[in-house]
Amino acid sequence: MASSPVSVSALHVPADWRDFLALTKPGVMRLVVFTGLCGMLAAPTQIHPVLAFTAILCIAMGAGGAAALNQWYEADLDAKMKRTRGRPLPGGRMERQSALHFGVGLSVASVVLMYFAVNLLSAAILTASILYYVVVYTIWLKRRTPQNIVIGGAAGAFPPLIGWAAATGQVSLLPVLLFALVFLWTPPHFWALALFVKSDYANAGVPMLPVVAGERATRTQIGLYTVPMIAAGLAPWALGLTGAIYGVASLLLNGVFGALALAVMLRKTGENDTMKPEKRLFAWSILYLFLIFGALVADRWVLA
What we know:
By secondary structure, the chain is an all-alpha fold.
């Protein structure tokens, strides 16, 4: 039984706007909104600025609502992990019911607004992304399998599809490749993090790969997943869907990612307790996604 969140909530410390903002995971939301915006800007048709703003707002609301529901469901796990125990629910600043209502309200509002203001397809993909993150990843996979990140990675890969669909009303090959890129990027990104916070996941009983299979297997998997990720990153240029700006940027960015992933894969367990290679890969993986999607937009607008 999840005793920690219940016992802390008995303190009845009132939540303020900062706690509700924290429920939306603003750091994660920035990446979600950015990739969604880039998917929209890379589309071959332009969307009215008001509709574009509305679509991005809906993506942000949907991501925030899903994040709130994730924290509502995982309050017991968050209370056991050093890096998450200060969140509003395990920190005793909010009741779980408030988080549930906030998450459901944001999620439903985002889909309804997207449907009526933008189009049905973007609303449908947004719905799928919310349900996938909350039901498939959070409720079904997270506590059951070390493949949680692999299968659950699709949850964060939807925004480029949503942005593209909002602008065009359809989905084509390029946004599908962007989906594949983020999907394949997720395992090396999260496993790099999991390697240097392994004890946190172990204490919470979350079957992340380093906890279940060990560090050696995790390093190998990081290297193996980086290969198809790089292929997905280069594919838009190789298939003639983008121009030279994206092509050159993709070669450079993927080259750095590959080198950092190789350093993690080849490092021997216990060789360096500071986990510097893993931390470098994790930090670069975030910057990588911002830069490669930024290059996509630059390629579309500069060479248009």
